[in-house]
Each structure stands twice: as C-alpha cells, then as structure tokens.
Design brief:
Distance between the termini: 25 Å
Structural class: mainly beta
Strand order of the largest sheet: 3-4-5-11-6-9
C-alpha cells in the first residue's frame, strides 16, 4: 500500500489468513505479516485450553511474546515463568523455549520473530483455519 508516497504494510485482523501448522494441532496462527512483506514474521497465536508449543529454538532469530489474554507459563532454557495478560518475554537466538496454556479458556499471544527464519513458510504450509466469535471479540474484530 502506498500512502502519500510512503510505502507501508497495513491491514486488519479480519483479512489476515489463519493457519494451523498441522491439522491435528489445537493452536492456530493469525498471520499479520511475513517475510514476503517484512524481514520478520508477526502472528497472533491462539492456544486452546491446554494447548502448547513444542520446545523449539531459532538459530538467528529473536522472538518476542506479548500476552493479549489468558494465562499459562513460558519456559526458556531451564527457567519457567508464569504469564498472563500484559506479560511479555523475549527469547534470544539459540535458546530452547515453549509456551503452555494453563488457564481456563484460550490464551492469545502476539508473537514476532526477527528475522523470520522461514517460520512464516512453515505456518503457511499448514491447513487454513477459521477464527470463531470468541477470537474475533478478543482481537477486536467484532463490531
């Protein structure tokens, strides 16, 4: 999109694609931007009750997590911390990390990874998913 001669990427949550990495996953990703537009990937990850990421690490990327709603815990290396709405944490490259939803209801986390390290390709290789009314309400897309 070009506005007054400035180039920018912009959108709205209602038009962002939603994916699961595997059809059996309970977590889904709202893809806000990817390496086709920016040198980073940014998603809202939605964890169903009891949902979790597998322990993983990134060779070069920093990963930033901000909890929009819900609660759980994050593990980075040997350290675990409780997370809830308003919590954030940053994982440096080469550190094993995982997020687990331990609360009642869903956990919504804004996640940005710089650089992308083809994480958006992994997300987009999975099946499409849909946002439900609860997701739309939490993400501000219901009017």
């Amino acid at each position: 999109m070009t506005i007054s001669g400035l180039h920018m990427a912009a959108g709205h949550i209602e038009t962002c694609p939603v994916y699961k990495i595997k059809s059996t996953d309970s977590n889904k990703f709202v893809l806000l931007t990817d390496r086709e537009l920016t040198p980073f990937v940014s998603v809202v990850e939605i964890f169903d009750e009891g949902g979790r990421t597998p322990p993983n690490e990134h060779a070069e990327a920093y990963e930033y997590f901000y909890v929009l709603k819900g609660e759980g815990y994050a593990t980075v290396g040997d350290t675990s911390i409780p997370i809830r709405q308003g919590s954030f944490f940053i994982v440096p490259p080469g550190r094993t990390h995982a997020v687990v939803n331990t609360g009642e209801g869903k956990l919504y986390v804004l996640t940005t990874m710089v650089p992308d390290e083809k994480f958006s390709d992994l997300i987009k290789s999975g099946p499409r998913a849909e946002l439900d009314e609860e997701d739309l309400a939490v993400l501000g897309a219901l009017r």
